[in-house]
Automatic annotation (TrEMBL):
The lineage of its organism: Bacteria, Bacillati, Bacillota, Bacilli, Bacillales. Its EC number is 1.1.1.100. This is 3-oxoacyl-[acyl-carrier-protein] reductase. Homotetramer. The gene is fabG. It comes from the Bacteria. It catalyses: a (3R)-hydroxyacyl-[ACP] + NADP(+) = a 3-oxoacyl-[ACP] + NADPH + H(+). GO terms for molecular function: 3-oxoacyl-[acyl-carrier-protein] reductase (NADPH) activity. Pathway: Lipid metabolism; fatty acid biosynthesis. Residues 6-185 form the Ketoreductase domain. CDD domains: BKR_SDR_c. Belongs to the short-chain dehydrogenases/reductases (SDR) family. Keywords: Fatty acid biosynthesis, Fatty acid metabolism, Lipid biosynthesis, Lipid metabolism, NADP, Oxidoreductase.
Amino acid sequence: MRLADKTAIITGGANGIGKETALLFAKNGAKLIIADFDEHSGTSTVEEVRALGAQAHFVKADVSAADDVNQLVTRTVEAFGRVDILVNNAGITRDGWLVKMEQAQWERVIGINLTGVFLCTQAVAGVMIAQGEGVILNAASVVALYGNVGQTNYAATKAGVIGMTKTWAKELGPKGVRVNAVAPGFVATAMTEKVPEKVLQLMKEQTPLRRLGQPRDIANAYLFLASDEASFINGAVLSVDGGLSF
């Protein structure tokens, strides 16, 4: 199995892409910590992971809160002794036109999508450096590259994630820690369930493969980048978008 005996933290692991990643990692031998503030769904995901024969624990955490993040990493090390993989998957949207966006909308998205990635990576970096190895995977987005109407806050965070990914790849690479990002296109998740049908159709038409991505499409990318098959990939941003970005 591609992740045999590896310990992985997946933030935002209770639903959507995070949950799909957790299930796929479990099938490939990983031990999992599911971090999320949705306790009900997080506990349910852990039960599904355990049903596959993998070890897993749920940790309730708000990734924008340093105390929660430090507790998350401490509990992971206590449970499994190490942290091999961090998937910074947690993310939210609070969309609005620039001229109408409230500061609270801006700050909450920045807190989860950008500060959360910083805090989680900072917390695991010391553990991985001491181990002499580790993999950090960050959730970027196609909107970081091309922008998107109504998503000033979201686009800003995802562009920031790309910048941090490349910086950390240079800082941590010499210590044996690889850092990469995945930039999904339009994916069928709870976020897109709120989108009007005519907009969804437009998304499909803009994508050369003429469909929305599925959570498994993104999970497969995470699995590859987390595995030893990607051992010479560092500082990359892998677009998984059906051809939307070229």
